[in-house]
Amino acid sequence: MDPHVLKSLNAERRARRAAILVTDLGDGRDRVVREGDAVAGTLGEALDKAFRTGKSQTAEAEGRSFFLNVHLPPPRIVAIGAVHISQALAPMARIAGFDIEIVDPRTAFATPERFGDVPLYAEWPQDMLARRPLDAFTALAALTHDPKIDDFPLAAALRAGCFYVGALGSRKTHGKRIERLLADGLTQAQIDRIEAPIGMDISASSPAEIAVAVLAQIIQALRTRGLARQDGVAA
């Protein structure tokens, strides 16, 4: 591999940005394509699919064969609130291939006894996120019902372009949340990205069922990045 190409690829990986190493199987030349780069035609369509699925593959385009070596950052879930939903969500998220972290300043809830070896931060979200900032491969789930805890990370997630932003609460609760976020300088278009009430509509009632609904919605958001959605299904 060309040292310059390798340097570019490693820089994207360190920055937690998605990239694909495209190798022309005819002449061996390779290049790095970043998610969002404009690539026309059949190759562009194959790249879009590879970015969404995360699967490396061979593609035929313009009479040539290419190997698409996909490098996606490990998807991360930041759950705000050491609540029962988070307790159920953590093991399921790990099985599905997500890194997950729990943040809650309420030390009565944020205890190792309740979360085992899950990364747990018993501090205010703004303090934790200053050290571990959000990015486009992070999903943010606000689960405390407390605006003093939830509002800051929700605003931070929208500004960071997180691939998923969800918040627990009724429509009335969310209406008040919208007013606060608008006052904080967020646009209505940004706020409209929040999934609220959080999770797919599966008539969930228990914390474990809500966790299933949340994880399903996060997976859908990850795999449909950049696609328009209609009725909850990728267009």
TrEMBL record:
Coiled-coil intervals: none
Sequence ranges assigned to domain XdhC Rossmann in this UniProt record: 78-218
InterPro entries: MoCofactor_Util/Proc, XdhC_Rossmann_dom
PANTHER family: ALDEHYDE OXIDOREDUCTASE MOLYBDENUM COFACTOR ASSEMBLY PROTEIN, MOLYBDENUM COFACTOR INSERTION CHAPERONE PAOD
Descriptive protein name: XdhC family protein
Organism the protein comes from: Neoaquamicrobium microcysteis
